[in-house]
Amino acid sequence: MFTTGSKLFLGASALSLVGAVVLGFTVGGQGAIIALIAATVVFAGLAALNFFINDGNVSSMEPNATVRAAANTAPAARSVWPLLLALGIGLLVIGADTRPMLTLLGLVVIAFAGLQWMMQSWSERATADPAYNAKVRSNLLAPLEFPVLAAAGVAAVVYSFSRILLWVDKAGGLVVFALLATLILVGGYLIASKPNLKRGLITGIGAIVGLGLISTGAVMAIDGQRKIEHHPTPSAEPAVCSEEGKDAHVDKRAPQDVSIKSSLAAHVVLKDGKLAAYSQGLRGARPDLTFARGAFSNVLFKNEDSAARRFTVNMGQFVDSTSGTDVVTKPVSCTTLVEPGGQYFLTLKFEKPSFASAAPYTITVPGIEDQAITVYVP
Questions:
Q1: CATH 2.60.40.420, the chain: domain bounds
Q2: C-alpha angle 19/24/26, rounded to 5°?
Q3: Residue 231: pLDDT above 70?
Q4: Cα–Cα dist 220/214, whole Å
Q5: Residue environment code for 166-181, b if the CB has 16+ CB neighbours within 10 A, otherwise e
Q6: What's residue 367's pLDDT?
Q7: I need a labelling partner for 106 at 20 to 30 A (CA). Which of 18, 30, 205, 281 fits?
């Protein structure tokens, strides 16, 4: 027997189907026809579902009719999970247009809130005893809730706080950090000094402060962080490696002492305008050095000359074809400007053998001619 709801859905599905057919034979329009056919399928599915559940009606002739009746079922308890699920969907939408991190966070929130909502709905109808149902739910989900919620809360606070500090300038960041630390300290003292405060009041204050911090961090994350000054290094500025003079950015406050000297492959010394190389495990100065290909090799450079010098490692010359065009690359690495009596620790990694290079691998010092240490990479 078709109920009233089933009849309404069947009529809507038939009307949608007739509209799709008429539209196809008269006006046309592929998009509108597809939409009407989709509506037909949806209405037909709802009609079948409504027919299966008998429109929620319970016959008075059925056994236990008063127990099975929908009117006899206790209403669902109030829950925060629908709100949290909506928040996850909002994060998903915002992250799709801004940051992938927000999208991932939205998926995690949706999964967690959906699981909690389903478990709550199941536990409320597990038995006729509400207290026992609450205990069942707590036994199942408490081992999951506490670590997940604690980790999520800490991550949200730390991430929001970092976005705030990256949004303000350097001087403002110190002020914000000190102000928030002071507020946390004062708030903790006030709460500890009033042991008779209601638990709900403390929870509400904490929730308001947390939501304020997270919302502020989200707004500043979307707006973007401040412009951070670029600090060049010899690796990021290879042109510096061919310069003899001091670079104001690269060589500023450069270290001149190395405390860790273990696992050295070799060390190179500049003294009286002469370069000398000493390989680990071999006696005496050598005119060349050999390093393993693809491995990290630690080299210590010492400047015993009377002027500040920069040690430069020339890693050959290679020609690569990109879209039919030959591109010449000259990999290079160098130290900062080493003051007289100073030393510098450099880690090298040779990706290609020296015989594959159009130019030899060498260690040189800009400003000193005819001084080079040949490097061999098998």
A1: 240-376
A2: 95
A3: no
A4: 10
A5: ebbeeeeeeeeeeeee
A6: 84
A7: 205
User: Given this model, what pLDDT does residue 362 score?
Assistant: 92
Long-range pairs for 13-21: beta carbons < 8 A, 24 or more residues apart: 13/39, 13/40, 13/41, 13/43, 13/44, 13/47, 16/40, 16/43
Q: Which residue has the higher pLDDT, 190 or 54?
A: 190
CA gap 225, 60 in Å, rounded: 67
Helices 130-167, 100-124: crossing angle, 10 deg rounding? 170
CB 249, CB 372: distance < 8 Å = no
Chain centre distance of CA 36: 42
Q: What pLDDT is attached to residue 327?
A: 85
Which of the two residues, 259 and 114, has the higher pLDDT score? 114
> Under CATH, which architecture does the 240-376 domain have?
Sandwich (2.60)
Query: Could you tell me how many residues make up the chain?
Result: 378
Parallel/antiparallel/unpaired status of strands 264-271 and 274-279 = antiparallel
The DSSP output letter for 227 is: P
Under a CB-based contact definition with an 8 Å cutoff, are residues 301 and 268 in contact?
yes
- Comparison of pLDDT for 131 and 64, the residue scoring more: 131
- Does the pLDDT at position 236 exceed 60? no
Nearest partner of 299 among 367, 361, 232, 366, judged by Cα: 361
Burial 71-87 (b: 16+ CB within 10 A, else e): eeeeeeeeeebeebbeb
∠ CA 298-303-305, nearest 5°, is 160
Greatest mean pLDDT among 40-54, 90-104, 296-310 lies in: 296-310
Give 338's DSSP letter. Answer: B
Q: Is the dihedral of CA 247, 250, 253, 259 positive or negative?
A: negative
Closest CA to 183 of 167, 206, 199, 215: 206
Q: Check residue 189 and give its pLDDT.
A: 84
Helix (H, G, I), strand (E, B) or coil at 284: coil
- At 141-171, the pLDDT tens digits run 778 778 877 887 888 888 888 888 888 887 7
Asked whether the predicted pLDDT for residue 264 surpasses 90, the reply is no
